[in-house]
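Bench log, entry 3. Co-assembly request; chain sequences pasted below exactly as received.
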Amino acid sequence: MVVGKVTFTKLEREKLAEVLWLLNWISVMTGATLFGLGLFLKIEILKWQEVMSDQGILYVPHMLITTGLAACCINFLGGKICLDCADTNKFLRWKLVMMPYVICTFFFTSCVLVGALMCYSIRGQLEESLFLGLRSAMRFYKDTDTPGRCYLKRTLDLLQIQFHCCGNAGYRDWFHVQWISNRYLDMTSSAVVDRLRSNVEGKYLADGVPFSCCSTFSPRPCIQQQVSNRSAHFNFDRQSQQLNLWRRGCRQALLEHYTGIMQSIGLTVLLIWLFELLVLTGVRYLQTAMENVLRLGDPDSESDGWILENSLAETARSNFNIIKNLGKCYQTDNDPNINVPTPAVEQEVPSQLRPEGSLTSGTPQVQNL
Amino acid sequence: MALMLVKFDLKKRVKLAQTVWFMYWFAVMAGVLVFSMGLFFKIELRKRSELMDNNESHILPNLLIFMGLIACGINAFGGKVCYDSLDPTKFVKWKPMLKTFLVFCVVFNALLIVTALMCFVMKIPLQFTLSEGLKNGMRYYKDTDTPGRCYMKRTLDLMQMEFRCCGNDHYRDWFEIQWVSNRYLDFSAKEVKDRLGSNVDGQYLMDGVPFSCCNPSSPRPCIQMQMTNNSAHYSYDHYTEELNVWKRGCREALLSYYGGMMNTIGALVFLITLLEVAVTVGLQYVDTSLSTLANPEDPESESEGWILEKTVKETFTDIMAKMKATGKGGKVEEGGEEGVATGFPTLVSGIFCGFGSPPPKKTLKSSKYDIEEIMLDCVQMELISNANVFRTSSAPLANFGGMMHRNIAPLTNILRLNSLSYTERPREGVFPSVIMSQGLWRTFLTEAQCK
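Structure output for the full assembly:
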């Protein structure tokens, strides 16, 4: 039972080849677009990679980049092949390459689909990575003298200024970390010593936030120290408190930023995948039609094209058997119909044959299968 | 002796026309570029007009926008003319206006140079506007409840963060003004009263800066308050502290930003001027090469092209003489014998430029004007033969002798070959015989008769 059978006249075959040539060239450009999108995403992620704990999210842009490059190469070759397919004589050149080419195209099209799906599914991993990354970044905010962490303060400040956010989930996260380095604390002062003693770990905790948390929309000069104590500042009402600092958490801000980018990229990649599927179907039809023409022997006749020669189940079964038999290439077979001569039979044969002029060579040879 | 004379055959003419047409397309895109640069500059000025006291002069971006639009129009028209110049029938309709168009192009190029120079010069008024505007901006920083000024705080904060600057000239400018509003000051507190009393104007001055002055690259958390008091902070010396707040003043920062922008725009406009001059020269060559065909009926004949018909000095003196003459030509001349009502050149041009003007019957004295210096506006000879109308116009002549050598030889050929005659008075002998004798100007005028 043939799947998707369509009959093609000679004219239709030539038209199909031309159309596919054009579509392949458009595919090259979409492949370049894919490459560009992957590159863009990679740069965006690398900008803020210091606040991400693991780099697992980089799989997505890498996948897009490799698929884009593969698309360019495969479709470039495909364009060449399809152009030659219009003519039966030129097709003979490509006959052996066609099947592997179709299989390659099928695999890379499914890679494109996987890339698109990854864009949507990576969100959970990203959130986790951002949570852990921001937490350690805030912890190392004060370590501007430690190599490897000296730029975390700057990165975090610029992040909070640019994305209008403060802390991990909110500005209160800053109350739980010591973000002022010991180098700038007067250890002889009683106020400082009291604070250090007031918690278990001996950290200098205060209800203050860095300057980068200050909101530019606030009508009053920024209040950074004693933020939660309304009576410490004159006329510090609820509304002033609301507008004083950024209210959003940086994890939320970065998550929204990256999810937005990846959703648009994912949608574009899905559209590209549909287009590639169309091209793949066209190429498959062209391949089967040309092969059938060669089989029929008459270049001008009509021929059939299909997607699969047998039904899906049978094709799957036969492919599975092929793969199974590939492994059995070098094993001996226990089939009773194959002649495996035993040593006794062997002795007889030379004595019978020798008087007649020996068809075999002098020494008996054991035959192995 | 023409300036930069070049000989052309058909192939060269075609190549010239195609090159100039191609260059005109680049010039159109250059015009679009000038327009967009003007627009961009205008938007940038508008964005920060609050800091310039709403007083900044928009003359430069408006001029750039205007010049960009004109450039697009001129270059599109020039491209069309060049495209049509390859086809003689189409070119005929453009021919009359080409002279004026070229003059207009030259004027436009001069304006472009002026615009480019202005880009470099306008930095000076901008400097004054900025310093005035920033001073006021800082004064109104605290007035977030006053309508019209409530966004000044946000604008200043964003500007200081974006341009990495603090205050007008340096951060100490913030010490001299009150940037904390009275609404947030507790007037019953002793400290506040002390500060208010400590200065003449009764302002709450402190040695602190807003948070937007803070430098994120500083290794320690930002010190905004009591900046000059070393003992208020541990391990702090405000003389040696470099990274705490931005050191640069905002006037300097904004000036270098706008100055850089204006320098780039000025350089680009100058380059575009060069391109425009090149296309104008190209069009002049196209025009002259198509006007000086040796054999006007044969498109494959040779021709010459030039930038100016005479040397620069001679052209300049001729222009001056012409201006003088048109100035004097407005006077009515008395004297019957002369009978020149509208002036010598005009009369001559009337004779040559169309046969509708009344024929002179009198001998004209040429005492006032030297023959060699006569400037003729145009010489058009209409030769009517049977069914064809043939018109030939030569380039502006400054020397009648020159006209002889260049134009009359082919004209003579035409007259001889085609046996053309004037409609009513066959005068076929007149032109060639008179013309051959140089200087017989008067004789020519007495004998030349118009219909």
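The beta strands of chain A are 6-8, 303-305. Chain A has a mean pLDDT of 86.
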